[in-house]
Amino acid sequence: MEFDQVKIERAVTMILEAVGENPNREGLRETPARVARLYKEVFSGLHQNPAEQLMTIFNEDHNELVLVKDITFYSMCEHHLVPFFGHAHVAYIPQGSRITGLSKLARLVEVAARRPQLQERLTATVADALVSELNPVGVAVMVEAEHMCMAMRGVNKPGTKTLTTAVRGTLAIDAMVRGEVFDMMRARS
Asked: What ranges do the domains of the chain cover?
């Protein structure tokens, strides 16, 4: 299904009317179009395969850990359609000298985040894409995020962070190595 700007604009107009607002008042006249453009951007990952960000492969004699930390992302909770945001830490141990560009890891997180979802799914999607495209010895992904559905409604706990992890390959088996990688992810520069 393709993006339907007109349908979103109609829906936003209906929401404004349903909450008792006048969508024709000066401050709201362009809101439906602005929200539609916002949704087009924040849901752009729906029509992309995150793994495609890893198609550039280099052969480099490096079979030790590669870790990119503090990749900022914004996503949308699929339960409430409000944002959650934070940082992803992505690590892999190459196999057979197959590495990808560091920016590709950030792009992987970005594309995976641009859809309505759960944080747990985002974390697993990033890990699974690395496994499918690089066939590494091991993968570890840690995502730390604040969810606006917890901060501004329900329990009203702003600043609360949720941490999720996904490990694959040797990092799922070797607790000592996994612990070292997670320690590096948590360490502040």
From this structure: 5-42, 53-186
Q: Is 48 a catalytic residue?
A: no
- Sequence-distant (≥ 6) Cβ neighbours of residue 29 within 8 angstroms: 23
Question: Which one from 53, 110, 117, 119 is the annotated catalytic residue?
Answer: 119
Residue 40 near residue 5, CB atoms below 8 Å: yes
Instruction: Give me the pLDDT at residue 2, please.
Output: 86
**The tokens 């694959």 sit on which residue?**
168
Which of 9, 53, 117, 147 does the annotation list as catalytic? 147
Q: Give the 3-state secondary structure of residue 48.
A: coil
- Identify the DSSP state of 155: T
CATH class of 53-186: alpha beta
> CB of 112 within 8 A of CB of 125?
yes
- 55-75 burial string, b = 16+ CB within 10 Å, else e? eeeeeeeeeebbebbebebeb
In three-state secondary structure terms, 136 is coil
Considering the chain, what percentage of its residues have pLDDT values greater than 70?
A: 99
Has 78 been annotated as catalytic? Answer: yes
- As a CATH number, domain 5-42 is 1.10.286.10
